[in-house]
Amino acid sequence: MSVAAHSPPCYGHKRLFEHPESSSDLATAHKRLRKLCASPHGRCDALAQALPAYALSDSTKAALCGLFPDMDEQVVTEVLDACGDNIDAAIKRLGELSLSAGAGRSCTPAAAGPAAGAAGDNLGSAPVSPDKAGAQQHQQSAAPEKRTLQEWVDALVRHISEAQGVEDARARASQVLQAFQHALALAHRKEADDVMRDRLGELTRENGILKRAVAIQAQRIQGASSSSAHENMRLRSQVAEYEAKLHSLELSNFSLAMHLKAATGSAGIGLANGRPPDVF
Length: 280
Prior knowledge:
The protein is mostly helical. The chain contains 9 helices and 2 strands. The protein has helices spanning 23-36, 43-50, 58-67, 73-82, 87-106, 114-125, 130-142, 149-161, 166-272; strands spanning 2-6, 14-18. A two-stranded antiparallel sheet has the order 1-2. Strand 1 and strand 2 (14-18) form a beta hairpin. The radius of gyration is 51 Å and the shape is rod-shaped. The protein starts with a strand and ends in an 8-residue tail after the last helix.
């Protein structure tokens, strides 16, 4: 028996799945899920509050695949296994992955080129694990392309024109504005980094100039100190020579004084006898 599971308005897809077990319960679950998914932003919280946690089964997996048609069945199974078969946590995790995949596709419109569009489609359809999907989303958000204001306006108009309702248009506008805000933040950060890089270059050049000036001044001071040391040694040697000369002169003076005293003393004795000292 086939049951048509319609996705929320923000996805705009339909998926048919067949399962022979619990068809009435499955249809009831789909009705409850569609009622709870009226708002794309509050879908995960409402589902987590309304649905209890129950064991993993084929009907549960099929219901989640119908609720999230953009997600591969392998991804749904991995998320259920990672959440320990807790349907509340699984719905929250799948909702986060689905919203991140939608934001990634909105951040890469057709103007970004076919390669960017293929990357956005592969993010939502390729069978990757939740961790790899988060890493891909982080890489895409970390390196947005530069766009003009007119390109952003065109992207906003194009996304809103593709909406299927008011809530879908609001979600699409929110995604484009978030991408625009993220691009502005990255541009401002890049500009600040460039300013800081230029300032760092100027400070590095000034530091090099100051280092050279200090080295030159140190060489001058060292040369002056060495010349003053040589001059001091020369003066010390001259003082020592002068001291030696002074000592020799003092000895010579003392000797002359003694000779003079001796000479004057003998002359006084000869005159005392009334005769010159040289006359006998």
